[in-house]
Amino acid sequence: MGQLREKIKKAVPAWLMYCYYLYSATRTYMYDIRRRVRDKVYNANTEDKLFRDLTVAYHIIEKGLTMPEPRPGFGKAVVLSLCNMVFSYDKKGYPRDNISFVQAVSVLHEYQLFHKAIEYTPDSEVSTALSRVLEMFPDLKGEKQLRLSSKDFFANADQPFDKFCRSRYSVRHYAGKDIPLPVLYECIDLAQRSPSFCNRQPSRVHIVKSARKKQAILGIQNGNRGFGHLANTLLVITSSVSMTKDIHERHENHLNSGMFCMTLLNALHFHKIGACSLNWSVARQQDISIRKLLHIPDNEVVVLVISCGYVPDHFSVASSPRISANKITSEHL
Ligand SMILES: Cc1cc2nc3c(=O)[nH]c(=O)nc-3n(C[C@H](O)[C@H](O)[C@H](O)COP(=O)(O)O)c2cc1C
Question: Is 277 close to ligand 1, i.e. is its CB under 6 Å away?
Fold first, then answer.
């Protein structure tokens, strides 16, 4: 069968093969794309979508509160929109013990306390909305942002897995000290221990230390404001599409390299390096820019950027509470 396929490949001109692959790839991708479109148009599960939007918004405020230098009055538009979401969530009668709802209210409270502590009054629209939320829900307490010493943060970095796992947080504050290349290579070697499909190991890593290149990447990535510029190193994780065979393996790059990224984050934590994943959910133009900048071959897809650096003596991390296992699990016994 394999031989026959090779013979056909040789006999058929490349442009025709290209058209055939494009046709079958488009059909297969349409199957996935339609599900996304259906979700956007027909899925009336507003509770799920409110949960998503509450989480995205409160996380922006969490991040703002834990920045190296939080800016007084930061995030006005997001705070107002989060207050409105809290009101509309409650008006719809959804459960008040929902983790995102509780955390949203809690983060708004922290935002207010932060500004009181620095004796800064947010503008009147924000102050009024905040007061209303806190009057309505005075008793909802979520997880506070954590202020830690570097010693405490890494205290469990060499402990048994459960403790280790619970001690890793995204770090968005870095000190100036350089991370030596051999340490990064050791972390990448550890990440290579991740499982991969048929052991095909599609992940590739681009280590970026050049100030010019870091700045260019951070300038087109949309989630590093306020801390990205402190990163000593950016790790750009890509995945080789040449390691996949046919279109049915279309998700394997992001899946395999996603697993690789998780091990890499753990390896960095083990080596007492602070790290933060930076999404690469970008439009075409940004993707083309990073390819040009780092000479990323056409057969690699960019999966994630990780900012990293040694940490200062004291810093804050966003608490980012998790939904418990029993809420995300179905049993088929
Ligand atoms: C794929 C992915 C993309 C992310 N992108 C960003 C980003 O652009 N900026 C950022 O500050 N954090 C980003 N994060 C970090 C998440 O905000 C963080 O992992 C989440 O809040 C859980 O917190 P934890 O990592 O501290 O456990 C990203 C995480 C993942 C997995």
Answer: yes
Domain map of the chain by residue range?
A: 2-42, 46-144, 148-317
For 70, phi then psi, to 5°, come to: -60, 135
The pairing of strands 146-149 and 233-240 is unpaired
CA 185 to chain centre: 22
Give the CA count within 13 Å in the CB-facing half-sphere of 62.
Answer: 24
pLDDT digits (tens, 9 = 90+) for 190-221: 999 999 999 999 999 999 999 999 999 999 99
Regarding pTM above 0.90, the answer is yes
* Mutate-to-test residue for ligand 1 from 103, 276, 306, 311, highest number of ligand atoms within 8 A of CB: 276
DSSP for 193-251, written as a single string: TS--GGG---EEEEEE--HHHHHHHHHH-SS-TTTGGG-SEEEEEEEEGGG--SGGGTT
Picking from 35-44, 80-89, 231-240, which range would have the lowest pLDDT averaged per residue?
35-44
**Do the beta carbons of residue 290 and residue 302 sit within 8 Å?**
yes
| 148-317 CATH choice from 3.40.109.10, 3.60.110.10, 3.30.390.50, 3.40.30.10 | 3.40.109.10
Rounded-to-10 torsion of CA 284, 286, 289, 293 = -130
Residue 170 CB less than 6 A away from ligand 1 = yes
Distance CA 33, CA 35 (A): 5
